[in-house]
Amino acid sequence: MFTMSPGRRHRLAAACLALLAAVLLILNVGLGIHYNKLTDSHLTLDDTERISKELINLQDTYKTAVETMKDARKQLDSEMSRQTQTNWELEHQTKRSNDYKSQMEKITKEIEAMRTRLSMLSDGCKHCPAGWILMNSVCYYFPLKSNEFKTWKESRDFCQLQGGDLIIIDSQDEEVLNYLMNHQDSNPKSPKAFWIGLSDVQEDGTWKWWDGTVLTEGYWNDGEPNDVSNEDCAALYPKANFFKSWNDVRCDTQMKWICEKAPKSMS
């Protein structure tokens, strides 16, 4: 700068001073604007106290709301627990009620069966020997409680010694079948089949009753008689479908039987 001419140095200095003045002006304006903003946003002491109080009140309200919510949650949990207990008790009572209903139905059926049996026994005592039951004006013997099992011929011999013979089913004698079904139990040793007075011993394939009458209508199970291993005697299997209650069986098989005979005078 010292090598410059005096006029040029004066102009450069004036330019620098003008630039510095401009910078100071800009700084002054900026500081004024910033100060005004600070003044506008400045809060008084009263405002600060008021806001502090409101904040404290909001905090207290929040705490109260939280506590209320906790209490409500506890009450809800308690109610849910009581509701669960109530549901369990309702389920238990419903089960008991259903059990009682089933027992009542079972007892009612047993009472009806006992009434029918009592009537049969009462009439049987008048017209049939002890241990025999009167149904459809015929005396029947069912060895349900006996532990004896007999072949077809042994069963016939037993019935004949009692003055009767194996049962002849020449009609839809469903009462006999119903009696057997009502007196069956779940014991595996309980009889599952009973000899009847039907066989094809004399002529294979020609089924006859013991009195020589040829069978006209049978109530065979599906696929029966199939004559597997010389099955020449017929047995009754108690089942709901009377029309499929017969099977052919080997005559030397040991099983239960049904006897029948005419009653004493019915007058």
Automatic annotation (TrEMBL):
CDD domains xrefs: CLECT_DC-SIGN_like
Domain of life: Eukaryota
Sections of the chain in a coiled coil: 55-117
Record has Coiled coil as a keyword: yes
PROSITE patterns the record matches: C_TYPE_LECTIN_1, C_TYPE_LECTIN_2
Pfam family, one: Lectin_C
Classification via InterPro entries: C-type_lectin-like, C-type_lectin-like/link_sf, C-type_lectin/snaclec_domain, C-type_lectin_CS, CD209-like_CTLD, CTDL_fold
Residue span(s) of domain C-type lectin: 135-260
Protein name: C-type lectin domain family 4 member M-like
Organism: Haplochromis burtoni (Burton's mouthbrooder)
